[in-house]
Amino acid sequence: MRKLVALPVLSADALSSVAYGPEAMLAVLVLGGAAGLRYSLPIAAVIAFMMLAVGVSYRQTIRAYPHGGGSYIVASDNLGRVPGVIAAAGLMIDYIMTVAVSIASGIEAITSALPALAPSAVMIGVAVIVVLLVGNLRGVRQAGAAFAAPTYAFIIAVFTLVAVGLADAAAHGFQPMPTPRLPVTEGVTLLLVLRAFTSGSTAMTGIEAISNAVPAFRPTEWRNARTTLTWMVTVLIILFGGTVALVHLDGVVPHGNETVLSQLARRTFGPGVMYGYVQAATAAILLLAANTAFNDFPRVLFLLARSGHAPRLFLRVGDRLAFSNGILALALAAIAIFVGFAGNTQSLIPLYAVGVFLAFTLSQAGMVVHWLRHRDQAHWRKSLIFNATGGLLSAIVFVTAGITKFTEGAWVAVLVIGLLVLLALRIRRHYDLCTQALALRPHVIELPRQSAPGSGPQVRPTAMPPMTADTETEELEEAESEEYPEEVSHLVIVPIARLDLAGMRALAYAASLGQPLLALHLSPTETEAERFRSYWATWGDHLPLEVVVSPHRAIVAPLVHYIETLHHQRPDLTLTVILPEIVVRHWWQRVLHNQTAPRLRRALRPLPKIVITTIPFHLPR
């Protein structure tokens, strides 16, 4: 991506937080009345400094991980498996809350302009999440100007709002307007200030997005990514600081019927076209920020599944080249959170900071360890200091949020993160035990030889011939005409994912049938395909092998295409597909293993003369 496109596409999450971050801070300070609101500028200054510090620290991450360095990757590489899983759990909560909070804040922007829609806010929010779910399942991705427009529209709207508002304030000597009379429900204590600080810090969410997407930039990727990150942090600080300053000068206070940004726009522009533009741009960027999570959450699940900490079904790519299972999981979790908290932004905010800053802290701590291990790199001391500063500030916010917001809902995030970590470690333990049970033992297992070598047809698919209604009818008539065993011509196909005991059992069963046999392997890359061919040669190379490269890790669709091609080339053959099947001891373990056979049956059911057979392999206790 070009920098001018990457900036809005990758910054939507961070910049959209200007719509709810300042308001979240003010919603706490207003509990202390006018005395509490006096702390808004000092707290905003501290948050702006944190934005700068964390942004600079992520510049070091981009330099160290030019191929993408998210919190999970950095923490796993430098701190170990468990901290990496904890960081991933924090990121998952972050993305779930991004959807819930962004949708809730976007709906509030709409209902501020159209109060009649307020009673239906929860229903509208759920409908929006469902629309995003359907769109992402159909392969709608972030791309080009269409996704850049809402972010640039929001930047222009808030810049204009702040500029015009400050110009009006300058005409009055920057004398703050008096705030309305406020009831004091809490004393202005250190606890109140810390709660406001952690709520306002949610304006920092999304800063790490650019470090995750370094390969998406044009060359030189890491340099362009660092430049874009600098732009993003600069714009974020200006928008955040300008909004808080304008709130202070205009004497605006949060109330339930209208957002702070809406009040500022109404006071500055009046209820006209510019007010409508600000509200529309705010709603648009918040929806775009929610959609960003639908790209990032499935990617984290994919990385966890690849390392064995999540079910392998999250490796699966749908027909539209999207991680459909991860997208569905995110939508269901976001709907549950959104409905559970009645779509109220201020109720959702306490859950937000915990996951965000836990991931920030572990990522920056991992970078400190990285620089200590790579002292031979240029400027490593300076980079270490920047990352240590960012990690320390993030840790302070994380601990503060966990303590001050615990009873307000942060306990939910802490509990869910703990459960996710325990679940991930339990899943990894199960996969490790499966690997041990399925491992081949040298000099004991040998690839089975085909019982009748060279007999029958040896088929390789080529280009699929064009089909017409007449030829298809002729095939069906021929397919239904077999009545005697000698009329049946066989070809046995054994899809083999890896050389293990389950695969060997399926190959042995297939070879024992004495029919022409073809082993089929799907590899995500050509490198892995060559590696499998070398394994195959090492274990005997007794059976014909066909390797298909499936770059998106899809399984069923390439299998179906391959088998359909064989069927159309040789409609006289009965194709028997023999699949190894892992049989587990406990019901909850079933979801950890791909259910390829049922999906393959459903996909191939319309075609005649295709048989699906499964060979069970029972795991020991």
Automatic annotation (TrEMBL):
InterPro entries, alphabetized: AA/rel_permease1, APC_K+_Transporter
Subcellular location: Membrane
Primary localization: membrane
Region of interest (Disordered), residue spans: 449-484
Membrane topology: Multi-pass membrane protein
UniProt cross-references to Pfam families, sorted A to Z: AA_permease_2 (PF13520)
Lineage: superkingdom: Bacteria
Annotated Acidic residues bias: 471-484
Keywords carried by this UniProt record: Membrane, Transmembrane, Transmembrane helix
Membrane spanning residue stretches: 40-58, 79-104, 116-135, 147-167, 187-207, 228-249, 269-289, 321-343, 349-372, 384-403, 409-427
PANTHER family: POTASSIUM TRANSPORTER KIMA (PTHR47704:SF1)
Protein name: APC family permease
Organism expressing this protein natively: Streptomyces cynarae
